[in-house]
Amino acid sequence: MSPATSPVAPGRLNEPVQPQAMVGYxxxxxxxVAARRSELAAIDAEIMGRKLAALTADMQLxxxxxxxxxxxxxxxxxxxxxxxxxxxxxxxxxxxIWGRLDTGAAPSTQLxxxxxxxxxxxxxxDALVAQLRQKLNLDPNAEQLARxxxxxxxxxxxxREQITLEPPTSQPAAAGQVAQLTARVGELExxxxxxxxxxxxxxxLEIDAARYERDLIVGGARRREARDALAxxxxxxxxxxxxxxxxxxxxxxxxxxxxxxPKYAVPDVAALGPVPNTRxxxxxxxxxxxxxxxxxxxxxxxxxxxxxxxxxxxxxxxxLRVKADALGFGTDADLSALTAQAERLxxxxxxxxxxxxxxxxAAQAMLDWLAEAGSR
Length: 376
Known about the structure:
This protein is mainly α. It is 73% helix and 2% strand. It has a domain at 1-139.
């Protein structure tokens, strides 16, 4: 059985896919998912049978990648809904294809927690399976050296495309690496044409090409994650700065409106310093931003709660008057005095909540007593 090759994904990030292109892609992806699962089952059985513990981590990673692709494929099918899609669904399909695909906690320390797009995950799976096949010497058509050389040429083209996504400073070194791989392929093709045996040299070359393609995909994904983390840090910093100003206004309003007011300090976002530019420092900065956000929520809940208590007491005054009128005690002088005094205090700035907390229960008790006395 020839190794499965991942299909070419339609569209690009932030551009809705065309429904016509999705039909063919879903069909090809379905075939790839099924074929890759069969390949992985055969390779896993070989590893278990030969007790090759050194390949267990690569096998687990390949299975995790397949599961991530399969889960995303299932979401694509649900969104596709047999072709019943509009512009919103087409945009969602594009996001599912080109957005970040969480591969989970991969067993490889090099790839742990990495996120790639669906096409990158498929190509990475191709590269890993090719590497496993070579380590196990499981190529089903070892005599078809020409086909393997063509596959290598196609892989080098994919690598060249991936290099265009590298930073400008890294592209010369990457191009040099591809040139070396291309030269090795050319040497093997020449040797084969001269009748030489290239079987022993072709396998290591395929492993090197698969490893380098994998490293490029991993590097690209990590750079995107670093850019995303930096963008999140800047966005959250701006958001917390705006919340800080709003909270300071809330604190001022509450202190002016009620007494006693809570006594919490509003966190100072500027005290965290500027947003760093290294991934480790950005992660630590994001953690501190999270702590600031939680502290701001505590401040907001406390001061908003104080204002809410004053409003609730005003509503209780009105409710007591309505109830008194309904029971026929709306003109009672003592009850009216209690509710009027509570209302006047609640409209003071600041309103003495400690006093009104005593007056309103007294007014409630007075109304209850009048109702009970009137029913005798």
